[in-house]
Specification:
8 helices; Collagenase (Catalytic Domain); six-stranded mixed beta sheet; alpha/beta; single chain; binds zinc ion; 15 strands
Length: about 400
């Protein structure tokens, strides 16, 4: 046999081997095992559940591994009603185009709503892209643009008495946390331009100013779940894959490069002005030198502004709430130039809560002055939530250890 023939025979054998190998592997992954999901909305490109009704199941109970906290089980029923109401709101808002059915947990629901133990939350949340801090988060398992299944994890919230409660932080008129998290499972991401929009992130805190789902989200849902029959536009929305990046909210303490800084007071009553100035004098006494210089002409470096309500406030990680509520007490806005603080607006909101109190130092003004001086985190008792008792408070030493550290 010639050399050339040997190569040809070898080539044929190798080819046959490859064909056998191909047939073997092709047959060993039969497609019947993974049936293709039948998509009822094949004409829409946006991410969607494959059919209607979208099924859900709720289970807010979980195993306690250790008794580390006390959960007020009493609130669980109310919270489950909130979640059901949230599904109803989405259904009603879309005129029934999107509709849901509650099923048992074992029936492979499209959306599973679960309660999560506060102790394991940190671990799980670290692996999630879109998380809403202490309130909850959503996970979505999608195959291309079809949502295979999804879960919402909700957390009981720690109350001031150190217990955990399912009802704390509820917005009774509109169950914001639940509507927000359910919309995450549809693929809607966060928006950052207004705290009054349902998809504003919940991690900076919560206000109950939101009372409806944005018209744009409703129109988009109607378009998707009518398979494009109802006219709608999803293009301006932040839908997965997200184009708007998650914003990192500023939470670090800062120090002014030079003191004293100029300050002004805007829209405040006579009593309010006296109290703000009193808080400043208490601050300076303890600081040991002049920190704030009053100027008539707004805006200055620090501006204390009294406001009637929080409707226009863009809340952040540095928003302070009235103790035990989700209504804004003090909201700081911080502007930086080249990494240095250049301007601070301290918005005192719902100031009339303290209006009838005698003119004396309250924690409320003190907290505003601390925020203006650079404290963004909580240290001692006087940097915690202000209460509407507007009580007189002594300044705490842990707070002052931090201020001295910032200005050493
Ligand atoms: Zn969110």
């Amino acid at each position: 046999m010639k050399h050339k023939d040997k190569y040809i025979i070898f080539g044929i054998i190798a080819l046959l081997f490859l064909v056998i190998l191909f047939i073997f592997f092709y047959n060993s992954s039969p497609q019947e095992v993974k049936p293709r999901i039948e998509d009822k909305f094949p004409d829409v490109e946006e991410m969607h559940f494959s059919k209607l009704p979208i099924t859900y199941s709720i289970n807010l109970s979980f195993e306690k591994t250790r008794v580390e906290y006390f959960i007020q089980e009493a609130g669980r029923y109310e919270r489950i009603q909130d979640i059901k109401k949230a599904f109803q709101i989405i259904e009603d808002s879309t005129d029934g185009v999107v509709y849901f059915e509650e099923v048992n947990e074992g029936e492979n629901p499209d959306i599973m709503i679960k309660g999560l133990s506060p102790t394991i939350f940190e671990v799980v949340a670290a692996t999630v892209n879109v998380s809403d801090s202490i309130w909850g988060f959503a996970l979505r398992n999608n195959v291309s643009n079809i949502i295979a299944n999804s879960s919402v994890y909700l957390l009981p919230i720690q109350t001031y008495s150190d217990e955990y409660s399912w009802v704390y932080g509820r917005c009774t008129n509109f169950p914001l946390i639940d509507v927000h998290e359910i919309l995450h499972t549809f693929g809607f991401g966060h928006v950052f331009d207004s705290s009054n929009r349902v998809m504003f992130p919940l991690y900076p805190g919560l206000t109950c100013n939101v009372l409806e789902i944005d018209e744009k989200i409703i129109n988009c849902l109607k378009k998707i779940y009518s398979n494009g029959q109802i006219e709608g536009d999803c293009s301006e929305l932040n839908i997965y894959p997200y184009e708007i990046e998650e914003q990192k909210l500023f939470t670090d303490d800062f120090a002014w490069k030079e003191i004293p800084v100029n300050y002004s007071i805007l829209n405040c009553s006579k009593n309010e002005i006296v109290r703000i100035n009193y808080a400043i004098s208490v601050f300076e006494d303890r600081f040991g030198r002049k920190f704030f210089n009053y100027r008539e002409n707004y805006p200055t470096q620090v501006n204390f502004i009294c406001k009637e309500d929080a409707k226009e406030e863009l809340i952040s990680a540095n928003t302070h709430y009235w103790k035990g509520t989700t209504s804004v007490a003090i909201n700081g806005e911080y502007m930086f130039v080249n990494g240095n603080i250049s301007r601070v607006d301290i918005n005192f909101v719902f100031y009339e809560k303290c209006a009838n109190k005698p003119v004396e130092l309250t924690q409320y003004e003190m907290l505003g002055v601390y925020s203006a001086s650079g404290l963004q985190r909580t240290y001692g008792g006087d940097t915690y939530f202000p209460s509407s008792e507007c009580n007189l408070l002594t300044t705490s030493s842990t707070t002052w250890d931090r201020i001295r550290e910032l200005y050493s």
